[in-house]
Amino acid sequence: MRILVTGAGGFIGGHLVDKLILEGHEIIAVDNKPFENWYQRFDQSQNFVADLKLIENAMKYSVGVEQVYNLAADMGGMGFIENNKAKCMESILINTHLLQASVKNNVEKFFFSSSACVYASFRQDSLDIAPLKESDAYPADPEDGYGWEKLFSERMCRHFQEDYGIKTYVARYHNVYGPNGTYAGGREKVPAAACRKIIEAVKSGSYEIEIWGDGRQLRSFTYISDCIEGSIKLMNSNFSNPINIGSSEMISINDLYKSIIEVNGLPFEKFKFSHDLSAPQGVRGRSSNNDLCLQTLGWEPTISFATGIKETFDWIAKELNY
Ligand code: NAD
User: Fold this and answer.
1) What is the overall mean pLDDT for the chain?
2) Is residue 286 in contact with ligand 1, taking CB distance under 6 Å?
3) Same domain for 258 and 234?
4) pLDDT at 281
């Protein structure tokens, strides 16, 4: 099949292109970053630098394509999305124009990468939260900015399917991590940031680490290979409502640091932790209920945090010459 992957120079997009090439597809890979900033770029795909907020680019790269995986978005970890709400919302132009172009160019299937940030904040304000099921996105109270953009785009997918007949698929990703992603610069998410901070603390000999918030906030983290497998399974299914693609293994941020230190054989007792209570920390507790995923895809993520974070740490360590 001829498949367009947008955001292909990014973390998840790069891994997806890799997998789809292995499956034998012809890939059009598009991102607006200069090639030297792509995390992965493959000779077997056709690679283009273009801004997909522009309708003419959305039209151009979806010609003759059977499937679109839309992963392009202006996004980052909590520090980025809490301080760049307008920028996050502007990604609506990418989704709108890609959906319009896909209909015009008779694309059969359209995949949208949504997020656990669509879930209502009032369901995530304590540590004894129930894992989030898909219906918990309503009544709507998503993450301000980024979450509203994702929720609105989900809704557009639904109505483009109902009104124009294009098949749409919506994955709600929960904290995806792994090698070949952002680990510094302000857009990184907590697993990669934690690996970097630990490496820097050891390299400097200070063993000092600052954690955002009190560190008791709970999350679940999805390893990249599970994310890719779930996304492709979803695209090959007939399920058109939003669905969680996320691990249900919950861990506090304090335990996340402990786990990374321990799986890498570092001396936990040497580390000195402080907590910045004024830093962005997002919701209090969040994890994925996978009942619907199991029912519809017969599958759920299986890679444990300890396994996935070791791969991630090793990659970041290499990047930092550690
Ligand atoms: P990423 O930032 O690594 O990748 C996104 C890519 O989109 C970037 O390379 C960026 O340059 C590109 N992009 C941004 N604006 C563009 C534009 N106008 N035209 C073309 N390309 C543009 O992020 P990621 O982690 O790979 O996330 C991929 C998708 O999954 C995003 O939609 C994101 O919101 C969603 N998501 C990710 C996570 C996660 O934990 N990583 C969680 C939930 C949802």
Assistant:
1) 96
2) no
3) no
4) 80
> Are residues 138 and 258 located together in one domain of the fold?
no
CA–centroid distance, 75 to ligand 1, in Å, is 6
State the pLDDT at residue 79: 85
**Tokens coding 49:** 């630098």
Q: Is 146 annotated in the active site?
A: yes
Q: Is the CB of 172 under 6 A from ligand 1?
A: no
Q: Which of 5, 6, 11 for mutating ligand 1's site (highest number of atoms within 8 Å of CB)?
A: 11
Q: Is 251 exposed, middle or buried (0-12, 13-18, 19+ CB in 10 A)?
A: buried
**For ligand 1, is residue 74 a contact (CB within 6 Å)?**
yes
CATH number of the domain where residue 127 is located = 3.40.50.720
The two tokens of residue 210 are 């600052």
Q: Please compute the mean of the pLDDT values over residues 25-43 and round it to a whole number.
A: 98
Same domain, 45 and 162: yes
**pLDDT confidence of 77, banded at 50, 70, 90?**
confident
Select the highest-mean-pLDDT range: 3-17, 183-197, 281-295. 3-17
How many separate domains does the chain show? 2
90 ligand 1 Cβ < 6 A: no
> How many Å apart are CA 259 and CA 3, to the nearest integer?
38
pLDDT in tens, 115-135: 999 999 999 888 888 999 999
Judge if 206 and 160 occupy the same domain.
no
Catalytic residue among 61, 69, 146, 173: 146
Across 199-207, average pLDDT: 96
Which residues contact residue 43 at a Cβ distance below 8 angstroms, ignoring those fewer than 6 apart? none
The verdict on 13 and 134 lying in the same domain is: yes
* C-alpha–C-alpha distance, residues 10 and 4, integer Å: 14
Q: Which atom of ligand 1 is nearest to the CA of 13?
A: 26
CA 114 to ligand 1: nearest atom: 44
- Domain encompassing residue 16: 2-174+223-245
Same domain membership, residue 89 and residue 54: yes
Q: Is there an atom of ligand 1 within 6 Å of 32 CB? A: yes
Give yes or no: residues 182 and 163 share one domain.
no
Same domain for 116 and 169: yes
Alpha-carbon distances of 141 from 112, 124, 134, 292, rounded to whole Å:
20, 11, 14, 22
**Could you report the per-residue pLDDT of 267-292, keeping only the tens digit for each?**
999 999 999 999 888 889 899 999 99
CATH number (domain holding residue 212): 3.90.25.10
Would the CB of 4 count as within 6 Å of ligand 1? no
